[in-house]
Design a protein that fits this description.
Helix content: 25-40%
Number of strands: 10
Structural class: alpha+beta
Distance between the termini: 50 Å
Radius of gyration: 20 Å
Largest sheet: 6 strands, mixed
Number of helices: 5
Strand content: 25-35%
Strand order of the largest sheet: 3-4-5-6-9-10
Bound molecules: acetyl coenzyme *A, zinc ion
Length: 223
């Protein structure tokens, strides 16, 4: 019994040592020099990447009480393209994506959610597509692997469905999640992707969703 109690106390202390940085959102152990160094490096790069000074020519496509959405197109000035590249690099790092080359880079639309603290706290990258494969509901039953084990291997239908717009990335800064930022980004995309029409949820598709992405997409498409 004593041993068990001791174990619980140790585990508690380990957890207690973990700090979440209020600016960059990284969880690290402040008592571990290696962790601290890693945090310092990440912190610097992250804050630089999401800083948004404001542009002379910016395409504001939606405004909210807590921020605005800016659309960046492929032929925009260099400073805008560079910001999109910086943000995409951070997002890809977090998602573990490696250099995914867009299929038609000159048709990509990037939506940035800018907070009222002048930071990029959300990003959605969309591209035109012709078809998509519907994700099938997860297999259930004692013999099927649990959803924890098959991280990204969602079962897809092999019957293509017509679609118009593919979401290749959607990301919200960790400390700003569950504030409907992703939802507002997708609403804005549906409104702006094709001039003069509001895309239905059947016309948009999420490519290679992560578990977070799948939870969001399922909820979004059913409401
Ligand atoms: N778990 C359960 N439900 C969720 C989650 C979650 N992690 N995230 C969103 N939802 C559902 C909820 O029902 C939520 O409504 P509620 O908060 O009123 O319950 C609804 O979706 C709307 O959520 P938002 O607040 O609009 O979503 P958020 O701004 O938090 O962003 C996102 C969601 C983009 C998936 C965010 O969690 C994220 O950036 N995650 C890490 C990056 C990632 O995995 N991106 C998806 C990659 S897949 C792709 O890019 C195609
Ligand atoms: Zn930090």
């Amino acid at each position: 019994k004593e041993i068990k109690d001791q174990f619980i106390i140790d585990a508690g202390q380990k957890h207690f040592g973990a700090t979440t940085c209020k600016s960059c959102g990284m969880i690290y152990s402040a008592s571990n020099p290696e962790d601290e160094l890693q945090h310092a490096q990440y912190h610097q790069r992250f804050l630089e990447g999401i800083k948004y000074a404001g542009w002379k020519k910016e395409r504001v496509v939606a405004e909210f009480w807590d921020g605005k959405i800016v659309l960046v197109l492929p032929h925009d000035p260099n400073y805008a393209i560079r910001k999109v590249e910086d943000v995409q690099e951070l997002v890809d790092d977090e998602l573990g994506f490696h250099q995914v080359i867009p299929r038609c880079p000159n048709k990509t639309k990037t939506f940035l959610f800018i907070s009222d603290e002048k930071k990029v706290v959300g990003c959605l990258i969309a591209e035109p597509i012709k078809q998509a494969f519907r994700v099938l509901s997860e297999p259930t039953g004692p013999e099927s692997p649990s959803s924890k084990e098959c991280h990204r291997a969602w079962q897809c239908s092999n019957v293509p469905q017509p679609a118009v717009c593919g979401i290749s990335r959607i990301w919200v800064f960790r400390l700003k999640r569950r504030k409907r930022i992703a939802r507002r980004l997708v609403d804005t995309l549906r409104n702006c992707f094709m001039f003069g029409c509001f895309l239905s949820t059947d016309e948009i598709a999420f490519s290679d969703p992560t578990p977070d992405g799948k939870l969001f997409a399922t909820k979004y498409c059913n409401t």
